[in-house]
Automatic annotation (TrEMBL):
Family recorded in the similarity comment: Belongs to the Integrator subunit 8 family.
Entry keywords, A to Z: Chromosome, Nucleus
Protein name: Integrator complex subunit 8
Subcellular location: Chromosome; Nucleus
Pfam families per the UniProt record, alphabetical: TPR_INTS8
An example Gene Ontology biological process: snRNA 3'-end processing
Domain of life: Eukaryota
InterPro entries: INTS8 (IPR038751), TPR_INTS8 (IPR057980)
Segments forming domain INTS8 TPR repeats: 504-846
Listed GO CC annotations: chromosome; integrator complex
Length: 873
């Protein structure tokens, strides 16, 4: 065997061999393959996919010799395809749950209509006019299956559906056609709903067993229709369905349609309840393992519970023993005191689901908003009970509870403390429960604006028992310092009952809170509430929320809508806080975002670590600008180095982070790192480090002998290349000027969209670095202006080359504007630097700006004096 053949064999043998998918025409050529295929463990295609393929092929229109489209031909091929579709459904024992899940309404309608034809249902006769007891068993069963499907489809179509996302134009046309066909079928089914109900109710009077077509009986039909019909009539073919099985299923389906009709006619709920009761009774008699009765027991239990509540009837014994029964009884009897007591007890037993408790609260809140003001206190207390339950389960406190804490009464806080005390099981208090309760009490203290109420909580025994000494100390100190002034970020939410029942108003209120809040936990719970009301991108609520374009695609690729909104908003708010130097809130928002993305995205985790680094760099630089000249902590310097040396494939990096890290290193004279310790491969690959290294090397050798001119010349060549004619002089949105390079530099320095003034735009404060850059631009300015009489002076100007090989290639306007702004920026940091003042005086004198106004009198005296001396000379 050759080496190539051996390699091919090794590759093919290294992975499992997947059998090819069977095609529909294979079964048409050899019908015996169908049963063999269906008996497989995981048949591919699946049974419902086969049904679709068979019916699709059987219903294809034909084209005649005149090229005219004709209806599908009634030939042997198409009849065989339809029969095979029925045989697949028979293999599934005509389980409507499976068929409804896998087939669209038009396909299932076609299948069942074919089933009616094969089962010898008299054509042209309404089903309601048929006497099922006199029909052959398989014929009667086909009628029942069709009408069961009809009312089930009406019920299912009443449920809300997700809107399909728009696709390609051709696909949209097909989707629209199918939608129109579905609506037409539903319209017919709704018109015939009464007849279908009558047919099914009549079947409940038939006590004999029924038979349904199987693969064998359908084969007999294909072989000899007359014989097969006689055999099915004599009940020797087909699958036997007991009367109890059928009646259980029919009761369940009738209960569903009556329950759906109860929305418009509440009296019908009684009929629904009766059918569900009989379905429950029959279900207990039947073998639970039997697959013929396809009743969803969990849904049946839900229907039964709902009907009992809606019909306001219940078994007194059941009410005494089940929590649901007790709550329903209290609601019917308006015994709200007992209802609240039940909720408090449930905080210990945790027997009622969270959703059920909140549904009770919402129901009473709706009544209150309809005008029943007597329920106001009840709603307050239920809100408190549910908040305590949420806290004990580690859940997020609802917006309604936070609204309640804005201006609560003393009685409300007293009741809250009582519920907290009673909700902790005295005999089985776990450390986890006590800790969660402590966190809840801390939250309440922090949210209360009324200091007297906050002290009321802090003096309670639970506060003393559950909180640690350090926590109590911090909270007490906060309460002492609290003032009546409310921060914009803590702007009062609307009153607890100011939000009307209208969902749109609720959403607008919550969106307003979302815009104002800077608390990550509060933002998260608001988003949870909003996503419970509507599915739409809430990161678009505020057009001023901006996330760097480098990160947008990564964030919007998050599949979970809530997580996507939360990550986007936390980052946008954090960036805004940094821009206004609110570093405390920025740190909270970014830390929360980091914790969130760490769970699912290593890429976003690194993005947030980078943004946290940038925030800390800016925070430290802001402190330095205000006079705090402490050196940055070693950990921060180490992290900046780590960022500059970082090489992670496919990680979105913001240019500004790299720029400011280099500025940070220059500001704090980390010249040793930039000149000697940074890896050479990093210098060659990272343009910001390359530029930083050249600036640091030049500064390090000043003032020095001629050797310093080697690094100075390299820096000079880089700046000249950036200021070449191919660069464009452009003013940014904030009024600053940058030189944007439009082509790749031959040295690889600052490729595309890099600015020569990035070093002072983003907080460069080191005087020697600024002096060096001013000196460089002064020399470049003097060369391109070529005016010996009016040359501008600066320190260390002699280290730069005195001529340019290609003078015409430099953009003169860009050099002039950059020099002016650079000097202005330097003087804004130190208005008394004599060298910078002399340079600015030369600039103003050269451009005939002799009348100058300055707010700083010292600067004015020095500058005017210097200009006067130039005139005198």
């Amino acid at each position: 065997m050759s080496a190539e053949a051996a390699d091919r064999e090794a590759v093919s043998g290294s992975r499992p061999c997947t059998p090819p998918q069977a095609s529909w025409f294979e079964f048409l050529l050899d019908p015996s393959l169908l049963e063999q295929h269906l008996r497989g463990l995981h048949p591919d295609p699946s049974p419902v996919q086969l049904i679709v393929q068979f019916l699709e092929q059987a219903s294809k229109p034909s084209v005649n010799e005149q090229n005219q489209v004709q209806p599908p031909a009634d030939n042997r091929r198409n009849r065989t395809l339809k029969l095979m579709a029925l045989k697949v459904a028979a293999h599934l024992t005509w389980d409507l749950n499976l068929l409804e899940k896998g087939l669209t309404i038009p396909v299932l309608n076609m299948l069942l209509n074919e089933f009616l034809c094969v089962s010898r249902v008299p054509p042209g006769v309404k089903h309601v006019d048929l006497d099922l007891s006199t029909l052959p068993p398989t014929t009667a069963m086909a009628v029942l299956i069709y009408n069961r499907w009809a009312i089930r489809t009406i019920v299912l179509s009443s449920f809300p559906e997700k809107q399909t996302k728009p696709g390609p134009h051709q696909l949209n046309i097909l989707v629209q056609q199918e939608k129109e066909l579905t609506e037409n079928i539903l319209s017919v089914l709704r018109e015939q709903a009464t007849d279908s109900i009558t047919v099914l109710e009549g079947a409940l009077n038939i006590k004999k067993d029924f038979y349904i077509h199987t693969l064998r009986s359908l084969d007999l039909l294909a072989a000899d229709p007359s014989t097969a019909n006689g055999e099915t009539e004599s009940s020797t073919a087909g699958l036997r369905i007991s009367a109890d099985h059928l009646h259980c299923q029919v009761h369940y389906d009738l209960g569903g349609i009556y329950f759906q009709q109860g929305c418009s006619d509440p009296s019908v709920y009684e009929k629904a309840k009766e059918h569900f009761r009989k379905a429950r009774e029959l279900l207990t008699k039947l073998d639970s393992s039997a697959s013929l009765c396809c009743v969803d027991e969990q849904r049946l239990a839900g229907y039964w519970s709902a009907c009992k509540t809606l019909t306001e009837t219940s078994d007194p014994g059941e009410s005494q023993h089940t929590p649901y029964g007790q709550i329903s009884c209290f609601m019917r009897n308006h015994d709200y005191g007992a209802l609240i007591e039940a909720f408090i007890r449930d905080n210990v037993t945790l027997s009622l689901p969270h959703s059920f408790r909140h549904s009770i609260q919402l129901e009473l809140l709706h009544k209150l908003q309809q005008g029943d003001r007597a329920l106001e206190e009840v709603c307050h207390k239920l809100c408190v009970c549910n908040a305590v339950r949420d806290a004990l389960e580690g859940g997020v406190l609802g917006v309604s509870f936070h609204q309640l804490l804005i201006k609560p009464s003393k009685n409300t806080i007293s009741f809250l403390l009582e519920v907290c005390t009673r909700s902790l099981d005295k005999e089985h208090r776990s450390e986890t429960s006590k800790r969660k309760m402590a966190i809840f009490i801390k939250t309440v203290c922090n949210r209360l604006e009324d200091v007297s109420l906050a002290f009321m909580v802090s003096s309670h025994k639970l506060f003393m028992e559950l909180l640690q000494d350090e926590e109590k100390k911090i909270l007490m100190e906060q309460m002492r310092k609290s003032s009546a002034t409310v921060n914009l970020s803590a702007k009062p939410l609307p009153s607890f009952y100011d939000i009307p029942a209208s969902t749109s108003v609720n959403i607008s209120q919550l969106e307003q809170q979302l815009i104002l809040s800077l608390d990550p936990r509060h933002i998260r719970q608001i988003l949870i509430e909003l996503h419970g009301m509507a599915e739409r991108p809430f990161w678009r609520v505020n057009s001023k929320w901006e996330v760097p374009v480098d990160y947008v695609n990564v964030i919007l690729a998050i599949k979970d809508n809530l997580t996507r909104d939360l990550v986007y908003i936390l980052m946008a708010k954090g960036l805004h806080c940094i821009s206004i130097k609110d570093f405390a809130h920025a740190r909270q928002l970014f830390t929360a975002c980091l914790e969130l993305v760490t769970e699912f995205s290593p890429k976003l985790r690194q993005v947030m670590l980078n943004e946290l680094l940038l925030m800390e760099v800016r925070g430290h630089e802001a402190g330095a600008a205000e006079g705090n000249m402490e050196r940055p902590p070693p950990d921060l310097v180490s992290r900046v180095r780590g960022y500059l040396e970082m090489r992670i494939h496919d990680l979105p990096l913001r240019q500004i982070v790299g720029e400011e890290c280099v500025v940070f290193m220059l500001n704090w004279r980390e010249n040793e790192y930039l000149t000697l310790q940074v890896p050479q491969s990093l210098v060659n690959s990272n343009p910001y480090i390359k530029l930083g290294q050249l600036i640091a090397s030049t500064c390090k050798e000043l003032p020095g002998p001629k050797e310093s001119r080697r690094t100075a010349k390299e820096l000079w060549e880089v700046v000249v290349q950036i200021c070449s004619v191919s660069s464009q002089h452009k003013r940014s949105s904030d009024g600053r000027v940058s030189l944007l390079k439009q082509r790749e530099s031959s040295m690889g320095i600052l490729p595309r969209a890099s600015s020569i003034n990035l070093q002072y735009d983003f907080g460069l404060q080191e005087p020697l670095v600024l002096t060096t850059l001013i000196s460089l631009f002064v020399r470049l300015h003097n060369i391109v202006r070529d005016d010996i009489v009016n040359e501008v002076t600066a320190e260390h100007i002699s280290i730069w080359p005195s001529s340019l090989a290609n003078l015409q290639s430099v953009d003169v306007e860009a050099v002039v504007v950059t020099l002016k702004e650079l000097v202005n920026y330097a003087l804004s940091l130190n208005p008394n630097n004599q060298s910078w003042l002399c340079t600015q005086a030369d600039i103003y004198f050269e451009y005939h700006q002799k009348l100058i106004y300055f707010t700083n009198s010292i600067q004015k005296v020095k500058l005017v004096y210097y200009i006067h001396s130039l005139h005198t000379d």
